[in-house]
């Protein structure tokens, strides 16, 4: 039986997803069991798809194009909107709610304005959001024109064609989004095993839990294209083992087999060097502080998840993390509030405020656009 549910298709940053008003969905029980939502979301996105293309749904066959956001006007004092992020598996009938999405966070306010969940006079506004996945606040700054989020602007976002209006994301108190704190184990760098080998990694949780590993440790240069890394069966196998073992170390699960799909993500980093971009151009080494290739849901991201970028900016300021060491060696005295990440699509700049041995805020600029409004077909 086919059902039609009000939905909006939104691009936020370098991701796209289906946005729903919570009122348009079936109510959850008192325990917030999401099973009834999961069936709708996987059907809408075309999962599971053994061919990995999601042709029978709205998904795009990769993790950055297989996402769901549920938004509601907030009843909390000082908070405008509550939102829940769901990462829909491409090949399985599963939705993971264990993390937040920085890219699609930039689409929450444009969607809410379009859907009439909130209203605002024309001009620049800062809206406060609560992400229910992490129970963390997010401040979103953007300009409103004719009651809607401004779209036209001059901001170039690597991985997105054209330009757009800036959407500023600020995460106050980002430390410990899913774990006990900024450094879940209390160490800036430590050894962890995978595949019978030992690796030195940094385990950091600021807006998102991330495992940071030098590319050379797993046989990568760290500047390969996403396709080259995904095709490297040995490296991808090591990365997944490392990720699962790190999930246990970070307190996200009891065993590697129970590791969430969404977190932690893995950031493969290396010292600055020329990087070939997806558009065929070459990025000079001096144009970025750190080449990064981030692995999400078993695939190498074409750019970088927004929350991942902010976590790396935080890690850059923490003394003795792997990123901090790389930047200090390559550019002595250059560690500051912003870090320029050389991604496969170009340079992404993220910021973090480090004060009194903790990160008090992270920030990032994105662009966003509502692409389509209507109804999506789902099957029960």
Automatic annotation (TrEMBL):
SUPFAM superfamilies: Diaminopimelate epimerase-like. It comes from the Bacteria. Signal peptide: none annotated. GO terms for molecular function: isomerase activity. Keywords: Isomerase. InterPro entries: PrpF-like. Pfam families: PrpF. Belongs to the PrpF family. This is Acetylornithine aminotransferase.
């Amino acid at each position: 039986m086919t059902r039609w549910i009000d939905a909006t298709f939104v691009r936020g940053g370098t991701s796209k997803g289906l946005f729903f008003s919570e009122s348009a969905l079936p109510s959850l029980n008192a325990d917030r069991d999401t099973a009834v939502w999961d069936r709708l979301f996987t059907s809408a996105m075309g999962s599971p798809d053994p061919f990995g293309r999601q042709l029978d749904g709205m998904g795009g066959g990769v993790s950055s194009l297989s996402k769901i956001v549920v938004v509601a006007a907030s009843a909390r004092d000082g908070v405008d909107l509550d939102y829940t992020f769901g990462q829909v598996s491409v090949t399985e009938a599963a939705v993971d709610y264990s993390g937040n999405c920085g890219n699609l966070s930039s689409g929450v306010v444009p969607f809410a304005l379009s859907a009439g969940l909130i209203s605002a006079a024309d001009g620049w506004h800062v809206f406060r959001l609560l992400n229910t996945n992490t129970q963390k606040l997010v401040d979103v700054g953007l300009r409103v024109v004719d009651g809607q989020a401004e779209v036209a602007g001059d901001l170039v976002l690597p991985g997105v064609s054209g330009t757009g209006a800036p959407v500023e994301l600020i995460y106050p108190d980002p430390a410990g989004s899913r774990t006990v704190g900024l450094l879940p184990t209390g160490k800036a760098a430590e050894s962890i095993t995978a595949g019978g080998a030992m690796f030195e990694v940094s385990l950091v949780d600021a807006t998102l839990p991330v495992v940071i590993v030098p590319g050379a440790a797993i046989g990568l240069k760290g500047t390969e294209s996403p396709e080259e890394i995904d095709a490297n069966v040995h490296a991808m196998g090591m990365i997944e083992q490392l990720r699962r073992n790190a999930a246990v170390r970070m307190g996200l699960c009891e065993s590697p087999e129970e590791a969430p799909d969404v977190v932690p993500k893995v950031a493969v980093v290396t010292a600055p060097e020329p990087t070939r971009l997806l558009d065929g151009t070459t990025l000079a080494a001096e144009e970025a502080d750190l080449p990064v290739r981030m692995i999400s849901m078993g695939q190498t991201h074409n750019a970088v998840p927004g929350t991942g970028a902010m976590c790396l900016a935080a890690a850059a300021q923490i003394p003795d993390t792997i990123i901090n060491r790389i930047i200090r060696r390559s550019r002595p005295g250059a560690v500051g509030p912003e870090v320029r990440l050389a991604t496969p699509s170009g340079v992404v700049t993220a910021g973090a405020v480090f004060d009194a041995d903790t990160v008090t805020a992270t920030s990032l600029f994105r662009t966003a656009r509502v692409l389509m409004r209507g109804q999506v077909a789902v099957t029960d």
